[in-house]
Amino acid sequence: MPKVSSAKSLPLGETPNLKRSSSEVKLDNATDIAKRASEEERKRVKEKTERLRKARLDAESKSKRRKP
């Protein structure tokens, strides 16, 4: 959590200094990278599932056509 001076000690209209430490920035960057990787993995799994579903439906369709 960034260190913020008390709001009581700030002059009217002045905003507190919200500089983040380098460790907080690194943590945020790592979190962003992990989120992106997770989203990409979900997308790959969704695409693969859709391909497999379509292949299964095609196979079932062909199987039904062959049966008299």
- Write down the secondary-structure element order: H
Helix content: 55-70%
Which stretches are poorly predicted, pLDDT < 50 over at least 5 residues?
none
Instruction: Give the CA-based shape.
Output: rod-shaped
Kindly provide the radius of gyration, computed on alpha-carbon positions and rounded to a whole number of angstroms: 27 Å
Number of strands: 0
Please summarize the sheet with the most strands: none
Strand content: under 5%
Tally the helices: 1
Give the helix/strand class: mainly alpha
* N/C terminus separation: 71 Å
How confident is the prediction overall: mean pLDDT? Answer: 85
Notes on the protein architecture:
By secondary structure, the protein is mainly α. The chain has a domain at 39-68. The protein has 1 helix and no strands. It has one helix at 22-66. It is rod-shaped, with a radius of gyration of 27 Å. The termini are far apart. The model has no long low-confidence stretch (mean pLDDT 85).
Topology:
Blueprint: H1 22-66
Properties at a glance:
68 residues, mainly alpha, 1 helix, rod-shaped
Short characterization:
With 68 residues, this protein is mainly α. Helix content is 66%, strand content 0%. The protein has a domain at 39-68.
